[in-house]
Amino acid sequence: MKRFGIKLHLNTWTRAENPPGGASSLERLVPACRDGDRKAQKRLFDAMSPKMMAVCLRYMGNREDAEDVLQEGFVTVFTKLDSYTGSGSFEGWARKIFVNTALMHLRKTDALGMSDDIEEARTLFAEEATPIQSIGYKELMKMIAALPPDARTVFNLYVVEGYSHKDIADQLGCTEATSRSKLQRARVRLQEMIRQVK
Amino acid sequence: MNQKDFDISVRNILEGAEVPVSGKVWKGVAAAIAPRTFTIPFWAYALSGVAAAAAIALGVFLFRPANTENIYQGAIALAPAEVRTELMDAKIVTPIRKQIAQSSMADATASVEEQETVEQQEAPSPVVASVKASTQRATVSEDNAAFNLLAFQDAVSHKPRFGISASANIQSNSRGSFSRPGTFAPRRMAPDPDEPGIYNEYPEVAFGLPFAVGVSAAYGISDRISFGIGLRYTRLTRTFVGDYYDSVDGVGLFPYLQTDIDNYQHWLGIPVNMYVDVLSSKFWHFHTFVGGTAEFLLDNDFLVHASPKDIHYHQNEGFTSPQFSLGAGVGIEFMVFDNVGLYFDPSLRYYFGTQKQPRSIRTVQPFRMDIEAGFRMYFGR
């Protein structure tokens, strides 16, 4: 059978996956959730949903779509708990599901128009990055949400999730050059927005 | 600040970000992961009840003994004491039965007239005449029915003892939703995260018309009762929207696409039935039957519609237990030649243990209406 898919670089999120008392308490809930314990499922949902909502919001750009993705992602998490072997962190495993669900929704709505615009990318690449240390995460998320869907998706996959351009090209069905171009466009636009705020 | 530092700064800011979630999300999740329960609809209970009642009533009517003496004895018991002896001496019933047994139905009508003549000659009292008249009418009517039954039994007694048949079979189908939001997991599909497969199914599904073809043989153990056994191939189809995932070793789940998926199930069944002839003539037979079928899954094939090429996906592991069903119905067979009959057998069928079987119309609605039609060739007249 033909194989599809790409490898994820999960080490990017090592710190986020293991907050004090976080991941380990989540993993303790897994067996009960697997057995259909509704209270345990609710606790797991309460513990994970704000963080996963942030993930979904970064990809979808609006709250309504993000909640749709969040709901569908949790259904997949609960129905596929048998697939979690316990070898890695539970949050990392679940996070992949939410990211993949978001990508699926974006694909379904044809939001990812991946045209090649390599020349523009070369031009943009020379620009200097703007310092953003003083920006809070809420402002930054609003800025990311304002990016075009294709550039936003590539930016999230590359910068936050740690995908390579080859992985992104495979996942989104575009060339690596297009992925680089979209990333650079997202960086430039974000920096423009940051400069305006400052 | 270079691009790499910019990326790291963004990542650090976003790390640990949390956004409040509205309560409706959990409600949707909880509804979607709640255990599903199926109930047999009311119409199914009502229909099965009516069918059972009709079958019992038909059986009682057709299989009761043709005892016209009972009617006559009943009339005697109800008659006044002074005419009871006269009635008992009248001997109305026996001559009529004798004639009916020896003559045609037309002759039976004539026998009624003959008896009326006999009655006039005997000139009984008015009370006796009234009782005799009513008794005689009932008796003639009943004896005509008895004659009919004798005629049918005569035809049945010439029924061939062994037959083989080729049949086609369709069942009712449906299109609809499982009436729950969100997705649900397929049964025993791709349990290994490194294994490609369908991980989500969405509620809207269209079931194709279940279709079967088969051959069977029946052997009669008496004039009325025969047993049949056969082989039947059944094809079940459905179309649904699902998430097909693929993966790379050691990485885990990856969504590939959400798309229309066709599911084709191929089953081989062994039906065993008992048939009871309840009415027969030279040209037709009316029968009831009851029986069970054990079916085995041959292939559970999925066609995932994808671009540029569709993906075929088989999921047969874990479905080793046979699917059992019980059915009962009535049927009619028309004899198109002396030894060849065309039959129609509508029935109601219930499928057991469907939770162990791949999802199909049977697992959603285990109580099914079934119509079988075919040709049967008889041997051994």
Structure description:
The complex is a heterodimer of chains A (198) and B (381). Chain A has 198 residues and is an all-alpha fold. Chain A has two domains: 13-108, RNA polymerase sigma factor, region 2, helix turn helix motif (Rna Polymerase Sigma Factor, Chain: A, Orthogonal Bundle), CATH 1.10.1740; 118-197, Winged helix-like DNA-binding domain superfamily/Winged helix DNA-binding domain (Arc Repressor Mutant, subunit A), CATH 1.10.10. Chain A is built from ten helices and no strands. Chain A has helices at residues 14-17, 23-34, 38-60, 63-79, 90-108, 118-125, 137-145, 149-161, 165-172, 176-197. In chain A, helix 6 crosses helix 10. The longest helix of chain A is centred in the N-terminal third of the chain and has 23 residues, at 38-60. Chain B has two domains: 60-156, no CATH class; 160-379, Beta Barrel (Porin), CATH 2.40.160. Chain B contains nine helices and eleven strands. An eight-stranded antiparallel β-barrel of chain B has the order 1-4-5-6-7-9-10-11. In chain B, strand 5 and strand 6 (254-280) form a beta hairpin. The longest helix of chain B is centred in the middle third of the chain and has 31 residues, at 126-156. Chain B is elongated and about 125 Å long. The model of chain B is unreliable at 65-71, 91-101, 145-160, 175-185, 187-191 and 248-253 (pLDDT under 50). The chains are: A mainly alpha (198), B alpha+beta (381).
